[in-house]
Amino acid sequence: MSTTKHKTTSTERLMAAYFRYWLRMLAYAAQGSRAYYVWMGSLAVVIVIGLYNWVQQLKHGFVVTNLSDQVSWGAYIANFTFLVGVAAAAVLLVVPAYAFHRDDVKKVVLLGELLAVSAIVMCLGFVVVDIGHPERALHLLRLNLPRSMLAWDVVVLNGYLLLNLHIPGYLLWKTYRGERPNKSRYLPLVFVSMFWAVSIHTVTAFLYSGLGARPFWNSAVLAPRFLISAFAGGPPILLLALYLVRQHLKFDISGSVFRMLLNIVRVMLPIHFFLFGAEMFTELYTDAHHAVAVHYLYFGHEGANMLVPYSWASLLLNVFALVLFFQKDILHKPVWVGIACVSLVVGIWMEKGMGLLIPGFFPTPLGDLVEYIPSVTEFWVCMGIWALGIFLYSGMAKVAVAILQGDLRDPSSSSAASAKGEEEKDGGEDA
Amino acid sequence: MTELVKLRRSKKHRERARQAAQSRAAQRDEVVVDRALSAKSARRGFLKGLGVASATAAAVGTTGCDDGDWDKFFQSHYKEMNAAEKAKVFERIQKEQKKTYGTDVQLHDPPPLDGVRFAFAISLSRCNGNRRCVTACQEENNQGGDPTIAYIKVLEVDAGSLLPEHGDLYFDDETVPQPGKVYMPVQCNQCDNPPCTKACPVEATWQEKDGIVVVDYDWCIGCRYCMAACPYEARHFNFTEPKLNPATMNTQQGYLSNRPRPKGVVEKCHFCLHRTRNGHYPACLEACPTGARKFGNILDETSEVATVLREKRVFVLKEELNTIPHVFYFFE
Amino acid sequence: MSAPLPALHRSQALLLLMAASMFAAPGCGRESVTAQHMASPPVKRVVEVTPRDQQLKHFPCLECHNKISDDNRSGIRPAVHRDIRMAHFGVADADGQVQSTVCSTCHALDDIEHLRRLHEAPVSFTDSHLQCGQCHHDKLRDWKLGIHSKQVGSWNSTTEHRLTCVECHDPHHPSLQAMPALPPPVRPKLGVAKTPHGGHGSHNPHEGDGHD
Fold first, then answer.
1. For position C104, what pLDDT does the model report?
2. What is the mean pLDDT of residues A291-313?
3. In a domain, C86, yes or no
4. Residue C105: which domain range?
5. CB contact under 8 A, B332 and C142
6. Helix (H) or strand (E) holding C152
7. Does residue C111 lie in a domain region?
8. Interchain CB contact of A116 with B (< 8 Å)
9. What is the DSSP letter of C123?
10. Strand intervals (E) in A313-396
11. Facing C187 at nearest CB: one of A67, A142, A370
């Protein structure tokens, strides 16, 4: 700390306290129980393996992947697409908390926003590993707006990241300091983030559905399908994450939050199936040339059938999850909730990831038939990024819970003593 | 309902116990945090992090960065470079090629000609699928091998269908033409409403005044969105650093056309602009043994292509997509 | 040097987001590039062809034909012309016999260094296209327009050098023979450059070692 003679101004003191806050948060995240070390350590190992494989890709070029001119996007963009949906699904906690004033959800909404941060970081990670020249990322400062949907995606994703870094960041900082947050500093942005969440997934859908060259994607229903599948597949992730937070970080999350998420799935999943059915009808009933992609997915086409078991598995997982989620007392059986959540997340991940990407490239616009599954390098890079996201979320959730529960407070702040009670009061009155 | 109440009550007991343990743990954590903040462990952690970061940087560094990369990093977009900057860039590229291949290269940057809009007209009566255009293009444009890129795809379609989706790209006949087949070469159509230039997030590809859609290989970030957007599969990605044979390299190069491209960028047919902007025919047309290709300035009424459009019934591929392509197909 | 566009501020991005739908429509407000400048004035083109006489194996014809007397005409083709395979306008007659044109359809023995035409004056070998065009008038028309031919040289010169009929079509055996096709491209099998060991997949002359 500074040892100059002049009196430190309040700004300087604040900045010093903020700097110390970050150090304390990092230190807090770096310490924990043995189980925590094992968890974070294994994730770190996977991250390093992913990093190594990415370096191989940088060195040798994309020949280490299974991509080709015909299938030019694969596992990376598949995961990216799914994760944008996960990030958008944070809005399912934000809206009840702030628009419908549900205090039980308000307690956990920061965890949802931090999940959105992790998801966006993973999305950005997948984009970075997917482009041929990541060192030219600064070229993105010369965005081709307003015509390029990918340029819009860059804007909205980064904007959403900033929103979801600011809102929890500000609230956690204020809680850490034991001070009341200033509503004008975050509440308007909360409402912006509600619309922004919808926009990130819509823009991502538009970058697919705007391409006339790819009839499988060039469908009006793609954007609604994206959003609905995000709202069906996002709550299970939230359910799992919040459940783990409650168990391992000892954070009190009311059962009503879980019930709300369950009910969201009960509404969204049937709509998801309806839209899926609508798409299938349009393709298969008309049976035009465009239906080849759907045939390839579910029935195989001219001997190419690598994705057939994959597509049916995805459908069955979703149906299985649907059945489970509609069980009356499922919330009393956490194991079954876990199974249902995992089943739905995996099912939607399969459908929205590879199940969306690959048929867009099969057949190609000139009728070429080339299949794709990820290579070993791609697999490990994907695992590395997923591990990075989970790693980040684990650390952030641990710190956030500590701050929210009053275990981490600014010792230099004047209201540090009454901090614990302050947080509940804040939560109740900030409506 | 009562079950829920019972569950809640026992839950409350458990929660209270948990909270007690929590506050003890919290106190422990506070001590731990403060200890962690103390010089030693913070420094250790920091150094560890620094070590990992530098290891990563070293790993990335082994991907082969050198001096030229620094200039490349700060290189502007082609459309924003003035003549002096372009000269510097061309010099750098020529030096790089001298170093890598030992060849003396002439790197040009011919501007589009006024009053010119290039177009191709291909006679499907005469194309017999011999693929000499494909090879000539590869030789003209310094394509590497294995994997190799071919700007031109020749499709063998059954007579009676003109749908490229029903074409066979991999026909391997002993002799051509085979009876009952029509052969259709497909390459970049240099569209007037190109979906690819719309898609590119950094405007690394754009349409020039003479209609040619070009790529600035030093600006392209390799996201491959343009490849997804192109309805003619006309855009190709460099999956590796191309392996070129110095003895057979084409040393007459254009910055936006046939200079060797690095890995990780997209490239495509550019109507041999380093030739055509100087009045020559593209390499594919010169190689065609049946004279099926017609090329010229569609704005000049007396040119071959304008004549074809006037005298023959022409069609374009995927007209319904409104890309306004400028490769026309006709029968004689 | 003009700097690249500055990074968008959040507010600007938001504003742009709201205005996006109005401008993102394809082609909206966008002129065709080619409309920006006027069409160039028509180029008066002169068609030139390669003089043919020097390309003929046995020219000048009179060297031999001056020595052949009228009495020696037996209808049997002399050895010097025996390599000519007649298969021009092959049509089967009532007996299934394929008829072809005969020498005298195009060559007049009393004017051997020209090609004879039905109703018009004979033409030199250099202008043989005018003779082919008697029957193949549609092809001649296309040839004159520049459609049916192979241009060589430059697309924007005032002189167009075109190949004549006989430079692609053997006049005695005109239909283009089938030719071997160059090999097809490699179909990617789960990625590119996955050729089997030995690298036989790529037929490119610049074949390097496959990536491993």
1. 81
2. 93
3. yes
4. 46-67+78-168
5. yes
6. strand C151-152
7. yes
8. no
9. B
10. none
11. A370
Q: What is the pLDDT of residues B110-146, one digit of tens each?
A: 999 999 999 999 999 999 999 999 999 999 999 987 7
Tell me the CA distances in angstroms from A210 to A126, A216, B109, B197, B293, one per residue in order.
21, 11, 34, 13, 33
CATH architecture of B118-330: 2-Layer Sandwich (3.30)
Across the interface, do A132 and B240 touch by the CB < 8 Å criterion? Answer: no
Rounded CA-CA distance B207/B215 in Å is 9
Average model confidence (pLDDT) for chain C? 70
Q: A309 Cβ partners below 8 Å, 6+ apart? A: none
Cβ distance C107 to C116 under 8 Å?
A: yes
In chain A, where the domains are located: 55-429
CA distances from A109 to A179, A183, B262, C177 (A): 19, 16, 46, 76
Which chains would you list as touching B if contact means 3+ CB atom pairs under 8 Å?
A, C
- Taking contacts as CB-CB distances below 8 angstroms, the residues of chain A near B20 are none
User: In this structure, is residue C37 part of a structural domain?
Assistant: no
Interchain contact, B221 vs A368, CB within 8 Å: no
- The verdict on A130 touching B (C-beta cutoff 8 Å) is yes
The DSSP bridge partners found for residue B60 are none
User: From CA A291, how far away is CA C42, in angstroms rounded?
Assistant: 48
Query: Which residues of chain C are within 8 Å of residue A146 when distances are taken between CB atoms?
Result: 16, 19-20, 23-24
Contact state of A63 with B147 under an 8 Å Cβ cutoff = yes
Distance from CA of C158 to the nearest CA of B (A): 10
Contact C7/A372, CB-based, under 8 Å?
no
Cβ pair B224:A72 closer than 8 A = yes
Count of beta carbons in the 10 Å neighbourhood of residue C7: 13
Could you state, in order of their start, the residue ranges of all structural domains in chain B?
2-61, 67-106, 118-330
Indicate the CATH number of A55-429 among 3.40.718.10, 1.20.1630.10, 3.40.50.300, 3.30.70.3270. 1.20.1630.10
Question: Which residues, 6+ apart, have CB-to-CB distance to C147 below 8 Å?
Answer: B123, B294, B304, B307, B308, B311, B312, B332
Reported residue count of chain C is 212
Predicted TM-score (pTM) of the model is 0.84
Sequence-distant (≥ 6) Cβ neighbours of residue B329 within 8 angstroms: B121, B122, B123, B124, B162, B184, B314, B315, B316, B317
Average pLDDT, chain A: 91
Task: Give the pair of three-digit tokens for residue A26.
Answer: 């990092």
Residue C195: how many other CB atoms lie within 10 Å:
17
Contacts of C187 in chain A (CB under 8 A): 368, 370
**What tokens appear for B144 in the block?**
């590497």
Chain C residues in contact with B221 by the CB 8 A cut-off are none
Count of A–B CB contacts within 8 Å?
Answer: 204
Neighbours of chain C (3+ CB pairs under 8 A): A, B
Please indicate whether, in this complex, the C-beta atoms of A132 and B231 are within 8 angstroms of each other: no
For residues B185 and C179, give the distance between their C-alpha atoms in angstroms, rounded to a whole number. Answer: 17
Number of domains in chain C: 1
Select the residue of A23, A133, A213 nearest B37 (Cβ to Cβ): A23
d(CA B119, CA A116): 49
Mean pLDDT of chain B: 86
Terminal Cα distance for chain A, rounded: 39
pLDDT in tens, C128-147: 899 999 889 999 999 988 88
Residue C13 in domain: no
ipTM summary value: 0.90
CA A195 – CA A181 distance, rounded (Å): 23
Strands (E), chain B: 106-108, 118-123, 153-158, 175-176, 181-186, 205-207, 213-215, 235-237, 252-254, 266-268, 293-297, 314-315, 327-330
Backbone phi, then psi, for B66, in 5-degree steps? -145, -170
Partners of B228 in the β-ladder: none
